[in-house]
Design brief:
Two copies of one chain form a homodimer. With about 350 residues, chain A is α/β, with parallel strands linked by helices. Chain A folds into three domains: about 45 residues, 434 Repressor (Amino-terminal Domain), CATH 1.10.260.40; about 140 residues, 3-Layer(aba) Sandwich (Rossmann fold); about 130 residues, Response regulator (Rossmann fold, 3-Layer(aba) Sandwich). Chain A is about 50% helix and about 15% strand. In chain A, the strands form two sheets. In chain A, strands 6, 7, 8, 9, 10, 11 and 12 form a seven-stranded mixed sheet that branches. A five-stranded parallel sheet of chain A has the order 2-1-3-4-5, sandwiched between helices. In chain A, helix 13 links the parallel strand 10 and strand 11. In chain A, helix 9 crosses helix 10. The first copy, chain A, is elongated. Chain A starts with a helix and ends in a 6-residue tail after the last strand. The interface between A and B is large, with 40 and 41 residues. The first copy, chain A, binds a DNA duplex (30 and 30 nucleotides) through helix 2 and helix 4.
DNA sequence: CCGTTTCTGATGTACGTAAATCAAAAATTT
DNA sequence: AAATTTTTGATTTACGTACATCAGAAACGG
């Protein structure tokens, strides 16, 4: 049987009350006694029964998710995953609030973050726009001992506790290698399509992509990045224009959202133009396009995993518990038409 | 606040004891009363607090993992993941026992399964060898109301509750497309290397691989399958022989374990022979080979996820609870040298 | 209407921890 | 050594559920 507080008390030769004071860092214990108890805890290998503790505490975790508004499927999916999590709230002792802010809007994000100051919040998860003001606002929350997790896109040099998202440099590198090898030594131009260089995930994907292209596929030339702001309509017109103006384009890497527009533009020039296309985020649209051959590979991050992981990490951090790093690593999914879920 | 048994009692106008009898299907409740209580439960949306219930019950889940012995890294890793799970046993109220049986040995597996009959076991996870005798033994356990989960390799037509592993047909198809596209329209022979056609996962991978090759890459010819029995030394000699006898081999798909031997054979013919190679299972050896360019892609299943998922499913099944299908789907990881974890 | 069976209520204990109270002991200061 | 402060012990209640016991009520058979 697993040891309990009673066993510690017996082992340390103190009372239950004292053990409780040590375990919950309450005042009123002499240093020597505290050390005696801590030694006993280590000796007999006590681990707190979190379930029992939460039961006794009647603990609930009020969590806040700050997600961008926006018409694209990925953010839609993300919001829907957070919503799903609210439905499981009862079972998990969480109380999740969703705050929506306009995409790429630094001051709105900062306002949302600052609005949480002083509120009863056990953790905050946000899709970060990578700006100094946001970093400062996050750091303010952290200094108030509120667990903060960045979701999908990370924040440079901030003190956030955790990042629940993929390694975007690796994602960009992977996209480059896939595109490069699929093109099999051909020569031509490549178009890169991004949402906004304001978010770190997009910058990093481009960085990884460019690096591998330069190192290993010198025959492929990168054209200037098109910024579609994750908006389908804008994306569509940018791509159409680029394709009609440059007949040497043989490949496209779309590293942001809004792929509905890209796919529409591609369909408009098919089957005359033969293009190898790698995009991010598996949605209804990209899935269909992958199956019908309009695109060749989809890189994906599982929003459901990211949300669940963020919740686990916020709870663990709030309790001062360690997280199982391996379990919280968000993986880059590569989908070809054969391994769709 | 979440409703409790007290709330049901009040709502249904009965006593706590009666609610308890209904909830835990104990006898001594008239049908009308039972229905009244069940209605109240639905009305106020009661959900049992599993943590509190387990606490009260002092429940522990004695689980058994049956895994093959064998020298290869994958099974090593799997056993080590199960072992890790035993370390978390205290926190998760599990009591995990590991039973090792010789690989591909049907009667040993059956004996191990039958040995569990009548024992106090809350769940069994096994790496199945796909034979009728094994299926029968599994069905015997299932009919004794013991949750059974197949791990890594599934069992045809059995009544097992769950399969914690990847879709191997999809894996084979994915390997074929990667290999086919990486070879970029070239013509030549392909060698397929398997462990044993006795296990369903290997058969299915081959099936998926052959299908896509036939459909989409007619210029690539499949040579007869080499069976390495997941043994590094045997694999090495098979591959060396094949490569020296046939100079038209331009690609290799290794769908089993024992890749240490394959890699050794490849290094022996490099850099003269240019080969595109896709293998299964990320291990220390395949990782190194991927980085140094000896192999081009690794398909992987995360043994840690599989083990953790199997545990969750066995517990949930033992409690008659539903599993979150989406969370338990084991994904096929595709690793290129750029997205290694 | 009585006796018997079947159902229901009331109550208590337990699980492992948290948190509070009050008394007693020990340490510290004066 | 007395007064004061700090530390410790003992005890109780609570969290939500499980499970057992016993008494009482309702239903049923004759």
């Amino acid at each position: 049987m697993r040891p309990t507080v009673h066993d510690i008390a017996a082992a340390a030769g103190v009372s239950l009350a004292t053990v409780d004071r040590v375990l919950n860092q309450r005042p009123g214990v002499r240093l020597v006694t505290r050390e005696k108890v801590e030694e006993a805890i280590r000796q007999i290998g006590y681990i707190r029964d979190v379930a029992a503790a939460n039961l006794a505490k009647g603990r609930v975790y009020p969590l806040v998710f700050i997600v961008p508004t926006g018409d694209n499927s990925f953010m839609h999916g993300l919001r829907s995953e957070v919503h799903h999590a609210t439905l499981r709230a009862g079972m998990e002792r969480t109380d999740i609030r969703i705050v929506e802010v306009p995409a790429f809007d630094v001051s709105a994000l900062v306002a949302a973050l600052d609005g949480l100051q002083g509120q009863d919040v056990a953790g905050v998860a946000l899709v970060a726009t990578d700006a100094p003001e946001v970093r400062a606002a996050v750091d303010r929350l952290v200094s108030e001992r509120i667990p903060v997790v960045t979701l999908v896109s990370d924040l440079t040099d901030s003190t956030r506790h955790h990042y629940a998202g993929i390694d975007n440099i690796a994602a960009g590198r992977t996209a480059a290698r896939l595109l490069g090898r699929f093109l099999g030594g051909r020569e031509g131009d490549l178009t890169v399509l991004a949402g906004s260089m304001l978010v770190r995930d997009h910058r990093e994907r481009l960085q990884g992509f460019s690096a591998v292209m330069a190192e290993e596929f010198p025959k492929l030339r990168l054209l200037p990045v098109l910024e579609g702001r994750d908006d389908p309509e804008r994306t569509r017109s940018l791509v159409s224009k680029a394709l009609s103006e440059n007949k040497d384009i043989i490949g496209i890497y779309s590293l942001g959202a809004g792929n509905r527009g890209l796919i529409a533009a591609l369909k408009a020039v098919r089957p005359e133009r033969e293009l190898t296309v790698v995009v991010h985020e598996l949605t209804q649209h990209t899935r269909t396009a992958l199956v019908d051959g309009t695109i060749d590979a989809v890189l994906n991050q599982d929003a459901g995993h990211e949300v669940r992981s963020a919740i686990r990490v916020m709870k663990a951090t709030a309790d001062g518990q360690a997280v199982i790093a391996d379990q919280e690593r968000i993986r880059l999914d590569i989908f070809l038409k054969d391994n769709l879920p």
